Amino acid sequence: SGSLFVVATPIGNLGDLSPRALETLKRVAAICAEDTRHTRQLLAHFGVERPLIALHEHNEDEIAERLVARLLAGESLALVSDAGTPLVSDPGFRLVRAARAAGVPVSPVPGPSALIAALSVAGMPSDRFVFEGFLPAKATARRERLSALAGETRTLVFYESAHRIEDALADAVAAFGAQRPATIARELTKLFETVLDGTLEDLRARVAADPNQRKGEFVLLVHGAGEDADAKVADGRRLYAKLSEHLP
Ligand code: SAM
């Protein structure tokens, strides 16, 4: 049979497409893409002319069957998403599962992912971390999810979009406490790349005050709950209690 290559593409800067990714995209019989218009632009930039097949959440199961038949017949295919690594908060898992179940070799062509890029510059413990992907869109579900994570000791990583970053930060302050250290990695590898850190309340206030900080794509990292964090909160409370004895 042929192989299915799972190919990472840039998360902004086109210079991040690897030579092997390019070579693979040129060589396969067809490229399965989340949004064919978006991928066609990327391919045009690199002079790749290969047939595109649309693969999104809604048609993945039925299309996977046909694609596996092509793979078994000897064609090699590539899978890409709009940006970064397929299957990471992106479609592809059903196709990969079907290909593996059919005994088709599935091979990664690794490269950019916003998750790893953000973790690599946040300066937070990264030996262990939890990737939570996108938070629920509805406020109640989002708050429940966050409060369930309040005791998590590993670094927490979330994906967020421009129109929800403000709400997400406000809910994170409520769930994790104003003083929990956090980092926002925005527009990584792009013109307006910005990495902000501070307490959750600092970040919430800065994003609320500056509309420019609400534009683009975001990764939100929250420091895990730890003895350190808890001890600092307790210290702060003790100090406040002492000071407030002297307040009118
Ligand atoms: N598969 C992609 C990856 O490997 O990173 C993620 C796809 S997910 C649908 C899109 C989300 O990834 C955005 O909403 C944002 O949270 C994050 N993201 C993608 N590109 C980014 C960038 N350049 N800077 C910051 N976050 C980014």
Automatic annotation (TrEMBL):
Enumerate the catalysed reactions: cytidine(1402) in 16S rRNA + S-adenosyl-L-methionine = 2'-O-methylcytidine(1402) in 16S rRNA + S-adenosyl-L-homocysteine + H(+)
The Tetrapyrrole methylase domain covers 4-203
Q: Cross-referenced Pfam families, in alphabetical order?
A: RsmI_C, TP_methylase
Q: Which GO terms describe its molecular function?
A: methyltransferase activity
The record ties this protein, via SUPFAM superfamilies, to:
Tetrapyrrole methylase (SSF53790)
**Cell location:** Cytoplasm
Major place of residence: cytoplasm
Enzyme Commission number(s) = 2.1.1.198
Q: What class of enzyme is it?
A: transferase
Going by the UniProt record, its keywords in alphabetical order are: Cytoplasm, Methyltransferase, rRNA processing, S-adenosyl-L-methionine, Transferase
Tell me one GO biological process term.
methylation
User: What is the purpose of this protein?
Assistant: Catalyzes the 2'-O-methylation of the ribose of cytidine 1402 (C1402) in 16S rRNA.
Q: Which family does it belong to?
A: Belongs to the methyltransferase superfamily. RsmI family.
Name the chain's protein. Answer: Ribosomal RNA small subunit methyltransferase I
Organism this protein belongs to? Luteimonas galliterrae
Quick one: which gene encodes this?
rsmI
